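Note to self: keep these together.
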Amino acid sequence: MYQVGLVAVYLGIILITAGMLVGFGAMWLDADGHAINWLGIVPIGFVVLLLGTVMTQLSGSSKDDNRPDLD
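Structure:
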């Protein structure tokens, strides 16, 4: 589950970056229809990023085996 969360974090970052760069670039070139489509990807990227962050934090990793118990 940790690996899936890590992939989701990277995918979210890529979606946000691509949506912002291409969307604002299209607005600058007066292609408003394409800009709206690309800027619409940004909220989806935030959702995927949040999902990946939650998955990695809740699942833990295999490196936590040596951590002492905090009870």
